[in-house]
Amino acid sequence: MNSKTAPALCQPDNLGMLLAMVRTEIVKAVEAELSQRGLDLRFTQFLILRRLDVLGPMGASELARVVELDGGAMTRQLDQLEARGVLRRVPHEQDRRALRIELTAPGKVLCKSVHECAARVIEESQKQLNPTERVQLQDYLERVLHTLRNKD
Amino acid sequence: MNSKTAPALCQPDNLGMLLAMVRTEIVKAVEAELSQRGLDLRFTQFLILRRLDVLGPMGASELARVVELDGGAMTRQLDQLEARGVLRRVPHEQDRRALRIELTAPGKVLCKSVHECAARVIEESQKQLNPTERVQLQDYLERVLHTLRNKD
DNA sequence: ATAAGATATTTGCGTTGACAAATATATTTT
DNA sequence: AAAATATATTTGTCAACGCAAATATCTTAT
């Protein structure tokens, strides 16, 4: 009785599961690549730094919204990243409630290599897709996302 | 200074982030739909029950592999689902280490309505994609997944 | 037959993230 | 101007997950 389970049975049978699997693999691949280079950063942290680098300094809440993270979780990530010296919490000038989160110089350097690293992994993962297909994939996902968010 | 931040700046700039967002939205949508019908089930639990229903009884480890869940996490999910009476841990006949996880009759009933519910949400989410595009989306994602798993 | 190694399940531990409450400050209403 | 309301950040709490260790059992090599 050494017949293997049919491979088809291990396939996801719905989009939700497929997405979960792909996402998990990308996160794992990026994190593996990062740690291989001695860059000890989680995927979430990569997203935070990257966002700051691309968009420039911003408040913690806005940053949380942009990376789709809960405000509380953001506070703790900021604690870690600040302790590590890659970003700074600067008090907002007009609004004393708010902060301005900004990358430090070392933070920017880190961000650059991390981004290259992650970009390579993500690029790699799409190796079997030609340029047209890549654009389509992005487009389809964005449409699905839009539909879900404007549930109508 | 009431100019809104450009919408483009809130867009994901890489596939990883986009996937994470879509997945999150699908999970939220499915869970919302479920709880709306009084079906109190998490997305992970839905996947577990669904897998059991589709594939039939199997060991906990195999089930964990199939739904991409850690063994320890599976044990705890099984605890909950068993306490709830939707599945059973039956000792394996030949292998005294192993279990046979099987749905109970109520479990099957639950699974049916849950699946219909989730399928509807997932179907809905792809409303803006025509049949060809849906097939392509699935295909592209599977190819990306395959590439990631056989990293070469 | 015994020892070594592999596999199934469970449990302990640390981390992460969501949700809600607390606090401080801004904004709007009356 | 005081009160009500809204927003930014932080903290507490809880559930879920991954990883590693523990235990039991099976399998393979010697």
Overview of the molecule:
Two copies of one chain form a homodimer. Chain A has 152 residues and is mostly helical. The first copy, chain A, has helices at 15-36, 43-55, 60-66, 71-83, 105-125, 131-149; strands at residues 87-91, 99-103. Chain A has a two-stranded antiparallel sheet. The longest helix of chain A is centred in the N-terminal third of the chain and has 22 residues, at 15-36. The relative contact order of chain A is 0.12. Mean pLDDT of chain A is 90; it is low at 1-10. At the A-B interface, helix 1, helix 2, helix 3, helix 5 and helix 6 of A face helix 1, helix 2, helix 3, helix 5 and helix 6 of B. Chain B binds a DNA duplex (30 and 30 nucleotides) through residues 42, 44, 59-61, 69-77, 92, 94-99.
Overview features:
homodimer; about 150 residues; mainly alpha; two-stranded antiparallel ribbon; 6 helices; 2 strands; DNA-binding
**Greatest interface and its participating residue counts:** A-B, 54 and 54 residues
Structural class of chain A: mainly alpha
Percent helix of chain A? 55-70%
Distance between the termini of chain A: 50 Å
The total count of helices of chain A amounts to: 6
Low-confidence stretches of chain A: 1-10
Beta fraction of chain A: 5-15%
Oligomer: homodimer
Largest sheet of chain A: 2 strands, antiparallel
Molecular shape of chain A: globular
Would you count the extended β strands of chain A for me?
A: 2
Mean pLDDT of chain A: 90
Strand order of the largest sheet of chain A: 1-2
Radius of gyration of chain A over alpha carbons? 19 Å
